[in-house]
Write a structure and sequence with these properties.
elongated, 3 helices, 4-stranded antiparallel β-sheet, about 170 residues, single chain, alpha+beta
């Protein structure tokens, strides 16, 4: 097919069966547009993702608190461990500083560790949690265990009821 010039090396001649690919890939403008769209979507979705992550961490910490209460109740039923237990019937006491080595060993056995800390940094209302420690009270004569996460007040109770700061 003749297009003007007769020189075969001329780029103006259309060669049958041969493909010419001058523009491979995307232009700079197209790439910038895609990056801008991704940035807008990321900015819109990031707060929801962060809120979801905080909520899941807090939920996991509340579940761990319930498991701690169960472990304390099981340890109380073990006579050898209970003899080593030191009761704290009214004032919440830090779980990781638990008195009575045999009792502490029995409580921590299901967790396969010697200390337990929470991961949530914010409570259900978005306020900072004062501490990442668990606290407990134990009154064996009344068969009563309470577990707290983050603070010793009833707002941070995880067992037997959920405190105001930890419920959604």
């Amino acid at each position: 097919m003749y297009r003007g010039r007769t020189n075969k090396s001329s780029p103006d001649i259309l060669l049958i069966g041969e493909k010419r690919m001058k523009n491979k890939g995307f232009s700079l403008v197209e790439i910038i547009i895609v990056i801008a769209i991704m940035a807008i979507l990321s900015a819109a979705l990031a707060p929801a993702l962060i809120k979801y992550i905080n909520r899941s961490r807090l939920s996991a910490d509340v579940d761990t608190g319930s498991e701690i209460a169960g472990a304390i109740m099981r340890a109380v039923t073990n006579d050898d461990a209970f003899q080593a237990a030191v009761e704290h019937p009214t004032t919440p006491y830090p779980l990781n500083s638990m008195d009575g080595a045999r009792f502490k060993e029995e409580v921590f056995k299901p967790f396969a560790c010697d200390s337990i800390y929470g991961k949530a940094k914010k409570d259900a209302h978005g306020d900072a949690i004062p501490s990442n420690e668990y606290y407990y009270t134990l009154d064996a004569s009344k068969n009563r265990v309470e577990v707290f996460y983050g603070d010793k007040t009833s707002d941070y109770m995880v067992y037997p009821t959920l405190g105001k700061k930890l419920e959604y």
